[in-house]
Known about the structure:
- The complex is a heterotrimer.
- By secondary structure, chain A is mainly alpha-helical.
- Helices cover 74% and strands 1% of the residues of chain A.
- Chain A is built from 12 helices and 2 strands.
- In chain A, strand 1 (131-132) and strand 2 (135-136) form a beta hairpin.
- In chain B, helix 19 runs antiparallel to helix 20.
- Chain B is globular and about 70 Å long.
- By secondary structure, chain C is mainly α.
- Chain C folds into 2 domains: 1-32; 33-292, MetI-like fold.
- Chain C has 12 helices and 2 strands, in the order H-E-E-H-H-H-H-H-H-H-H-H-H-H.
- Chain C is globular and about 75 Å long.
- At the A-C interface, helix 1, helix 3, helix 4, helix 5 and helix 6 of A face helix 1, helix 3, helix 4, helix 5 and helix 6 of C.
Amino acid sequence: MRRDRPLAFLAFWTVSSLITLVPIYWMFVVSAKSRVQLFGSPNFLITSFFTENYINTLKDPAFQRYMINSIVVASANALLVTTLALFATYALSRYRLGGKENVFFWTITNRMAPPAVFLLPLFLLYTQVFVLGDFKLFDTRIGLILLYCVFNLPFAIWTLRSVIDGIPKELDEAAYVDGATTWQVLTKVILPLAKPGLAVTGILTWVFAWNEYLFAATLTSVHARTVTTGLAEFVTVTGTNWGQMAATAMLTLVPALLVLGLVQRHIVAGLTFGAVKE
Amino acid sequence: MKHFNIPGRSLVATVFVAALMTSTAPAFADFWSDAAKDLQGATIRGISESTPPSNYVKDVLAPQFTEKTGITVEFEATSWDQMYDKAIKDMEANTGIYDFVYIEQDIIYSYLARDFLVNLTDMLAENESLKSPDFDATKFTTFIDNFKNADGDIFGVPMEAFVKVYLYRKDLFEDPAVQAAYKEKTGADLKPATTHAEYRQIAQFFTEHAQANGMEMWGTTVQASSGHPASVYEFIESVLPTYGVYNWGIDTTTFAASVENGGKMNSDVAKEALAWWVGNLEFAPPESTSSTWDEVAATFAAGRAAQGLVYGENAAWIATNPDKSTVVGKVGVALPPVAEGVMDQAKSGEGYIGYYDGGAFGIPHSSKNKEAALLFLQYIGEESVQADWALAGSRIVHQATYADPKIVEQDAKVDGYYTLMKDQGPLFRGAPPFPFHNQAREAMAPFIYQAITGELQPAEALDKAAAAVDAELKNLGYRK
Amino acid sequence: MRSSTVGWLFLAPTLVILFIFGVLPFLYVLVIGFTQWNSFAADPTMQYNGVENFRRLVFDEQFLYSLWLTLKFGFFAVTSQILLGYFLAQLFMRDFPGKGFFRTIHTLPLVIAPIAVGATWRLMLVPGLGPIPYYLRQWFGYDLNISRYVDQAFLATVVMDVWHWTPLVTLTMLAALASLPKEPFEQAQIDGANRFQIFWHVTLPLLKPAILATVFIRLMDALRTVDEVWMLTGGGPGAATRYIGLHIWRVVFPKTDYGYGSSMSLITLYLTIVMCWLLYAGLVARRDLKRVD
């Protein structure tokens, strides 16, 4: 590798990074100011931190409920998806199943379909068809947890496939020779070796579930609303209360930023369904 | 310490208060706790648009009610869009999330057509023990008639009612220097506009005046959001009628919109009205094309417009709340400018000059706590809570509220807004009784938006809008 | 290979969930698409009306405009991302101080919720608050108002998407560039090819699979875009940014036009699948060629 003109490179990347960061920084600035401070010309400096925007948001019982819902839905979905994807990829990798490659390809079509297409039928199914006595899937966390499998499972299966395929079959065979059951092979042999891959898949699944908006907005109302929906709702209510809107948005993206540190290396493989590896 | 000096007076006051307590309080307290004794610990959930009147219910009336009855009220005040989205989905799906919902005057016909709401008159008659002695439907203004069916049964308890008025900057209009400048420029005397031409002239004058003097101010507000139905509403409810085109230009018997089918939506007069309204954008602040009713009020309160049509629910805080408004004490209230002959039509009852808006709370059939919700609706419909609520939200639903001393006092501060609503209220009218309200609005909306952005000329926009509404209503089976 | 019954059992939960929440809704929308059903119509029940909805769709200017707009958005956004992403990836191939740090920063937008991205850009662009319109006016006298000017709003959504997703392209290209074999380049240099010739005849063909894969994933996602645009412009001004997802939402919910909205959904899905298939065929075709080699 050549190391040429380091200063020019440094300057270029600094500018490019600024372009990436300024919108987020500006949001932070707005969230740290009162209404009056935002009048007049834009000021990128934060002279005094106006904490009320954050306090008001965090104190709002509706926002608290949305936060809890988001955490529960994203975590439960990540757990469910990773488990089912492990089972599925194990089956696809180790068993002779007629048409399994077609099944494998078919799963991804669920991820590629435009979500807007499914809004109406899902809404009708959730309110009129999937009904048990008084129980409807509409506005329930479990409804969202199951639904998010539709786009997260294909993603997880596609990324995990290469991980499981990469574990030598000889290890399974050796365990079977030692008298292990299928379940034991899966939990004692495959699981430990697939752990890093499972962790990355789980974390990215979690982020996708946390970030989802359109389905949550359509299929929940009060009890199961998530933060992204809350943010959208909040913006229209407060109208010109930009400070509080920015604070809410900042709180929405905090978990994502934390996650970035954990999976930065694997994000490309994740977002391209394992098509591109680093 | 002042009260030491006048013991006699405070004693009298104490006795008086005590007397009041003994005469009314026990009966009062008894009814609410008696009626709610089986409902203790129940929780009811309601949804409304986040407006000053709604927030007063959320912050003041709901906690009071909880204290009296032991019934918890979860009051969700959200945006107009979300309110409809959630309420309609809930009633449509029969999920029973909400025990009371906000019914805006214009949507009641759709809700009644779909049989979403509980007949409150029947329910009160069937449940003697839940009937508050202080709730009396006859005390309401005629606004309550909007929420009755053909038999006169009530389906909603009015919680707000107001007119969309013409607000102007009284301080500027009465400033001799400004008056002189106006006279010099136009040759006319500066006074609130009574015709569209005058309105435009004033808008132009103030925009240029502000520019010349380095002020961040424009001549008029325009509720012209280019992607939100608020703009459609301002045009069809507040501008078209002032040109003598009523009911959105849709014929109320044949449900035809276009001229060729017998409607008026794309008549020459309607086109003139749209051209005038869109033309006002030239003299309006840049945020106008993203303004709904909230932003229009905020713009006026920030002193960024010299005049505008503003929903009355905001009049009180704009004129009196120094925390949110920079034009306290500077607000004048008048009737909107109208075309020739329209005022006479309005006076005779043939027409109207603007929008009489408001809403009520009703109970959806899907509610699982109808009894508790019924108690709550009666509570907010009582006379005793009305005056303070009117101060907070400049809304009046009871006849007697107009005469309340607090309101009389406030009336002076808002340049006679309440008097105007009382005396001139009949000149305004609510939305036409269309069961296809949202559908027709959505059909025409894209063309109004495109007229705002200038992609379509006003005439072209209305031709397309009328055709779209005609097609939609035919499709829906309303127009044969 | 082991007993297939156990294998299918392991696959079963996945297949059941995907069937109930993926296939069933599709079958449902397929049925509704052939009906006239608006719950606020004079007759609010579902009525079979054959292909009438589809007949109307062919002449529905707003629907066609929305489709066209979505394609235009996808084209501009993805093209800019590929060009910019390739350029940045090439620069990342060099060695320079702070590389890891800059890479992390450039990954940041990828994890942000689309709805928050919309909020971020709204704060940047709203007149009276955002720095962009302010400085454009101050320095260049340019009037930027995305709620008023159609082209500006369209451009704003493209810029937002480029900001959000270029990092993905950069990282993908970077991975692809790093895994390129050395020999063809050395050979080309020996043959005396200039930089452009090397790029055109060596780099590009070798990168083609990665580029196609990225275009495929990005294009599919761009055509699905709803959240960010909803937050930034709400589909306005006029219909300037009413991309197909937003358009369907408006028809189905505020207008409650279930039947017509469903047929619209079906057409959209069909077009997506066709496009998906064309791109995928392109990808697979490349792979097959390579195998023949």
